Amino acid sequence: MPRIKITVAYIGTRYVGWQLQPPRAEHPQPTIQGEIEKVLTAVTGTLVRVHGSGRTDSGVHADEQVAHFDLPENWARVNWQKVFTTKLPHDIAVTSVEIVDDEFHSRFSAKAKSYTYTLWLKSEFILPHRYPFAWKVGPLDIAAMEAAASHLLGEHDFATYQNAGTEITNTVRTVTRISHNCPEYAQRSCLPHELVWTFEASGFLKQMVRNLMGTLVACGRHKIAPDSVPELLAAKDRTAAPATAPACGLSMHKVFY
Fold first, then answer.
1. Cα–Cα distance for residue pair 237/167, rounded to 1 Å
2. Buried b (16+ CB within 10 A) or exposed e, 232-255
3. Which residues are designated catalytic?
4. Which letter does DSSP use for residue 17 in this model?
5. Nearest to 229 by CA among 140, 176, 156, 177
6. Is 201 helix (H, G, I), strand (E, B) or coil?
7. What is the rounded CA–CA span in Å between residue 99 and residue 77?
C-alpha cells in the first residue's frame, strides 16, 4: 500500500486540536485529524487512519503540519490535492501531497520542529482580523525577553515547562533557536504592533512553547527577572513558572526531516 505524505495548514480556532477524541466522548467535537479522515473515508469507502507529525492543542493553528496515511494502489493516484480542496472545511487546507517511501513516518522521521507565537504589543486595541491569531499583551521590555530566552537555548530538562496530561518520562529537549523577528519563510508579514517569536527544537513537550512564551512575557512585563530562568528550569516543577500563554497566538510552523 503506497504511503501518502501531506502538508496541512489550518486555523485551529473552532477545533479541539489535531487528534481524534476518544470514541466514547460524550460530546465529540471536531478535530483536524477527524476532518481529514472523514474526507478519505467518504471517497474510498473505508476507514483510512491519518498519522500526524505531532499534536496541536485546542485553538492552536498550523502553517505546515505534516501527516501521512496508507492507501490501496488503486486510490494512490487520485488527485488528492483537488479532493481535499473541494471537500475539507474552509479553515483547513492541504498544501502538498506526495507519495513517499513506506519507511517515512510523519512523527518518527522528524528531526526538528519550529513553532511561531504572535504577540500584539498595543494595549489600546487589537485589529479584529488578528484577534484569533495573537495574544494582546501590551508593551514589553524586549531586551529582558531576549536575556531570558538566552537561558533556554541548548539542552535542558524542560519538566518545568511541560503541562500535565502526558506519560513522557524523558523531558530533556534541545532548543536550537528562539528569535523574535518575522521569519523569512513565514507566509505572513508582521504588522506594526505584532511581534512574532520563533521556537525551534529537536522536539517539544506538551504545551512547552506556550509555557516558554508565558515566561518570556512575564520577563517582558518585569514580573520576573531574566536571571531567574535557570532556577525555574532546575525546579522541574510546572507550578514554579508563570502561567501558560493562550492558544490563539501559537502556530506549528515547520517540521524538519
1. 16
2. bbeeeebeebbebbbbbbbbbbbb
3. 57
4. B
5. 156
6. strand
7. 9
How far is residue 196 from each of residues 17, 21, 42, 180, 181, measured CA to CA in Å? 22, 31, 38, 5, 6
CB atoms within 10 A of CB 102: 11
Closest CA to 19 of 9, 27, 29, 11: 29
Identify the H or E element spanning 230.
helix 229-235
C-alpha cell read off for 215: 515566561
How far apart are the C-alpha atoms of 224 and 171, rounded to whole Å?
Answer: 24
- Contact, 182 vs 189, CB < 8 A? yes
pLDDT of 24 reads 65
Q: Count, in order, helices (H) and strands (E) of the chain.
A: 6, 10
Query: For every one of its 257 residues, what pLDDT tens digit does the chain have, with 9 covering 90 and above?
Result: 999 999 999 999 999 999 998 766 677 789 999 999 999 999 999 999 999 999 999 999 999 999 999 999 999 889 999 999 999 999 999 999 999 999 999 999 999 999 999 999 999 999 999 999 999 999 999 999 999 999 999 999 999 999 987 778 899 999 999 998 754 434 445 677 899 999 999 999 999 999 999 999 999 999 999 999 999 999 999 999 999 999 999 999 999 99
Show the cell assigned to 86: 473541494
Handedness of CA 166, 245, 190, 188 (dihedral sign): positive
C-beta separation of 193 from 227 below 8 A: no
d(CA 141, CA 145): 7
Residue for grid cell 469507502: 45
